[in-house]
Write a structure and sequence with these properties.
By secondary structure, this protein is mainly α. It is built from twelve helices and two strands; from the N terminus they run H-H-H-H-H-H-H-H-H-H-H-H-E-E. 30% of the residues are buried. This is Tetratricopeptide repeat protein.
Length: 282
């Protein structure tokens, strides 16, 4: 009896094996990124094919990401993707597609801002003619790391490399101001003004310089008020009533200057963008 039962079970299993095999073959396996050895091993074993390997690593990472995001319930392994992109950019510092992929995916979705910045800084040492890398670095420092001074330094390099991006110089000026480096912002803009013949850019720079000089002037008046009264003003009008100023200068952008007691800075309601204009946002 036992032998009969075992025989029946065996026959049943054998009859279902082809169906299970077909089902397994038809089911798509989840895409994975394989393990890579250390970069040193990868570099030396790639020999003269390291540029080709750089491209293959980039395409593997891009294909993996595209497959995963189309699979419900799957989340990309951003750490492993970062490893692939890191290797790709180290094997070939001129693989610009790898930097684009890393900036778009690792930074915005994976939150690996500092990791990507390391790759961008390393790449910029080789691609020192490419404005995209300092531009990405400047954006990351401004938007993700809340570091306006670092952002200004990178953005000023990007502006120098690509003068056609005429919005960058005034944006750099604002970043230096946000970093409490108003004098540095003014001097930077004056240098750019003297070095360009673009009349539209020169006009926008003059407006930005005028605004920053007014802010610098008002902040100096605030310090005089503090020395005179021993306290911070509640608003800028107190500088007039105290006899320190005859009046508050107008904001060239059409807003109004005000004093922010939380950080002791003079600011403008226009945020240095022409009121009613859509083109000047920086």
């Amino acid at each position: 009896m036992k032998r009969l039962l075992c025989l029946c079970a065996g026959l049943l299993l054998m009859s279902t094996l082809p169906w299970l095999t077909a089902a397994r073959n038809d089911a798509p396996s989840p895409e994975k990124l394989g393990y890579n050895p250390s970069f040193e091993v990868t570099y030396f074993s790639s020999l003269e094919y390291r540029y080709l390997l750089s491209e293959l690593l980039f395409y593997d990472a891009a294909f993996y990401y595209g497959t995963i995001i189309e699979t419900p319930g799957q989340r990309p392994d951003y750490i492993m993707m970062g490893r692939y992109i890191d290797y790709a950019t180290r094997l070939n510092a001129f693989n610009i597609d790898a930097y684009y992929l890393g900036q778009a995916i690792l930074v915005w979705e994976g939150g690996l801002v500092k990791d990507m910045n390391v790759m961008l800084e390393r790449g910029f040492k080789r691609r020192n003619w490419d404005f995209y890398l300092p531009f990405f670095l400047g954006f990351n420092h401004a938007y993700f790391l809340n570091d306006p001074q670092g952002a200004a330094q990178y953005m000023s390099q990007a502006a120098k490399l690509n003068p056609r991006m005429t919005f960058l110089p005034t944006y750099v000026g604002r970043l230096y101001y946000e970093a409490d480096k108003t004098e540095q912002a003014i001097q930077y803009l004056k240098v750019v003004y003297e070095g360009t013949f673009d009349q539209k850019l020169r006009k926008s720079i003059l407006v930005r310089i005028s605004t920053l000089e007014s802010i610098q002037f008002l902040e100096g008046a605030v310090r005089k008020f503090e020395q005179k009264t021993g306290r911070r003003p509640a608003e800028l009008d107190e500088l007039v009533t105290a006899g320190i100023l005859k009046g508050i200068p107008p904001d060239p952008y059409g807003g109004r200057f005000y004093y922010d007691r939380s950080d002791g800075r003079v600011k403008t309601s226009s945020k240095m963008a022409l009121q009613g204009a859509k083109n000047d946002r920086h």
